[in-house]
Each structure stands twice: as C-alpha cells, then as structure tokens.
UniProtKB/TrEMBL annotation:
Domain of life the protein comes from: Bacteria
Name under which the protein is recorded: Peptidase
Taxonomic classification: Bacteria, Bacillati, Actinomycetota, Actinomycetes, Kitasatosporales
Gene3D superfamilies, per database record: Clp, N-terminal domain
Length: 150
C-alpha cells in the first residue's frame, strides 16, 4: 500500500492525470530495500531515481498530459481503473497474478517490479533502459526470486 500511496502522490505532484508505471517504479525504489537489492546494489538505482526525480522538470515531460497505454494489454473502457493508466492497472493485475501463482493472497513489491518489467512498452521499462538496466537480466533475476513480503 505504501508503494501505491507514493505513486499517487508522485502523480499529483507531477501534475499528471493518471498514475503510470514510472510512478509505480519510483514508489517501489523509494519504499522497498528488496527492490533496490534486485539491481545488485549498482549505480543503476541512483541513476533510476535521478531520471524519475527529473520527470517533472525535464525528462518525462513528453508524457505530461498523455495517457500511458503501451498496447501490451487491450484497453477496455468498462474495465478501466479511474486514475490509473491502462499499463499501470495491468501491472497491478500482473503482480497479483504472480502472487497467486505461488498461492499468496497479496502481491509483494518484487511481484510488482516483475510485472512492470514484463511490459516492454511501458514508461517504467523506458526509464529502466535509459538508466542502462539490462531488462532481460533483471527479469531473469526476478523470476528466480520468491518474494514473501507484502
């Protein structure tokens, strides 16, 4: 819940109409040491946070006022989640699916990170790529993890 709250605050602070996957990534990096550890403690975390912090003053301005729809998941108007981009809503669903696959009732932060990484067209993945994160390696690492935290 702290990640979702942080993402909502970021969206509001940035003047965005919807929470998107980059807001979720920012919330994950700020909130969970296990997420930061998934990057092998390298300088990538600092670079990622730098890009995300710059979002409202430079990097990411091209997203301002637009809806994130990566196209990875069909957008259904009746299934839309108010205040969330389609890609962010799909990532939340994906995190829950990942948790259910291990018979957990709640998704953890690593579940959400894995779901974000699963959408190659998302804003979160764009930020990860700009920070020189090897997406395939991160996805492989996350698939090997068995997150138990909520």
């Amino acid at each position: 819940m702290s990640v979702i709250s942080a993402a909502r605050r970021r969206a509001t602070r940035d003047g965005d109409r919807q929470v998107d996957t980059a807001h979720l990534l920012h919330g994950l990096l700020e909130s969970d040491p296990a997420v930061r550890a998934a990057f092998d403690g390298g300088p990538q975390v600092a670079r990622l946070l730098g890009y995300l912090v710059q979002r409202s003053i430079g990097y990411g301005l091209q997203w301002h006022g637009t809806v994130e729809d990566s196209g990875a998941v069909p957008v259904v108007a009746e299934g839309a989640v108010p205040g969330w981009s389609p890609a962010a809503a799909a990532a939340l669903d994906g995190a829950l699916d990942r948790a259910h696959a291990r018979y957990a009732t709640r998704a953890g932060c690593l579940d959400l990170l894995a779901a974000l990484v699963d959408d190659p067209e998302s804003r979160a993945v764009e930020v990860l790529c700009r920070a020189s994160v090897d997406i395939a390696r991160l996805a492989h690492r996350l698939d090997g993890e068995r997150p138990g935290q909520d």
